[in-house]
Write a structure and sequence with these properties.
By secondary structure, the chain is mainly α. The chain has a single domain, classed as Up-down Bundle (Growth Hormone, Chain: A), CATH 1.20.1250. Helix content is 81%, strand content 0%. Its main location: membrane. The chain crosses the membrane at residues 23-47, 53-77, 98-118, 167-189, 231-248, 268-287, 294-314, 320-343, 355-377, 383-402.
Amino acid sequence: MAFGGLAAFGALGRALSHRDARLFFGASLTSWTGLWVHQIAVAWLAWELTRSAFWVGMVAFCDLAPAVIFSPIAGAVADRMDRVKLTMASQATIALEAAAIGTLLATGHLSIGLLLALEVVKGTASSFAQPARQSLMPGLVPRADLPAAVACNSLCYNVARFIGPAIAGPLIATAGVVPAVFLNSLAYLAATLTMPSLRVDAAQRRGQPSGAGVLADTLAGFRYAGRHPGIGPLLAFAAVAAVLMRGVQEILPPFVERLFARGADGLAMLTACIGIGALFAGLWVAGRGKLEGAVTLAIAAAACQALFTIGFVSTGIFPVALLCAALMGASASVHGILVQTLVQNASDASMRGRVLSLWGMITRACPASGALALGTAGEFLGLRWPTIGAMLAALLVVGWGWRRKPAMVASLETRS
């Protein structure tokens, strides 16, 4: 087997030694590379159309906010139907949405209103794809390799975060936004077509209906997470931290131009640096291959992200900003990988889709809320001081999380 020698590289190698895991993560890397090209393209397009930080934030909000409504429902759906088919349908919708943006823009019919509406469609489809796709991971690798598989999943996202901007910057600068969004359409189409090749155990591929309705299952997911002594506090901590800190990464174009007087090339460089930092941090987390100490690291990483973000907005020196961006990406990657690993490990199999949908809601809706608030504040107060205020608030949240740490460790850092 071509990848047989990967076992020598530890936990990450064990995860990738499985044929279906390689296929799954290869498709993930392809689609997420297209996603990052798309996100940079539409953010830059919104900035070119409006020259308004508010509208750039609104585009991010329309992409991410549907998770508030649809992610919990999507988790309940993923726990009762064929997760491969649900993933295929969701990814195909994203491919069509990108193709629609490209076609409307090429023909001169795309307005900021239409862009917002199409991003709502994309955000809704992504809300269903996330719990369905991630719920398949326990069926791709043995349980002992699940932490490494979760880390590998995040690594694919962050490798794409590096590759996507590296493609997007020159592509947008030389050919415009249209080819960039069509590239995303092709990437998601390719990822969709690989899904039928996965050999997933039937117990992991198809959720088991509870006998109750979708709404009842959705509410049961909230109750389960809220009553769990570790999952509830950890998700609450991650949600508030995401609102306060992740908005900066969602509306980078105004920061690029207003703080550093750079164009699309500067946006691509900053996003790539975030991805590079996330990639190396993810490799380190994957190499750990253990749960012990994960809660402590997750909380400490959130503190580091706040401090590095303060550094990012406080400097007017672009190379220093690039370094801070890389460190922001690294700390965000450590936090995100560990939170997802902990909640996936601690969740009952019957609740996994719903718990992961709550995590998906946090990673999508909370940054959207932060981006909209930061973009709105930026129109009146500038970008620097509202960002610093949000980071200081995030450090207070870190203090709350640290006080809850013993209870979270006791319930999350054991094999379920």
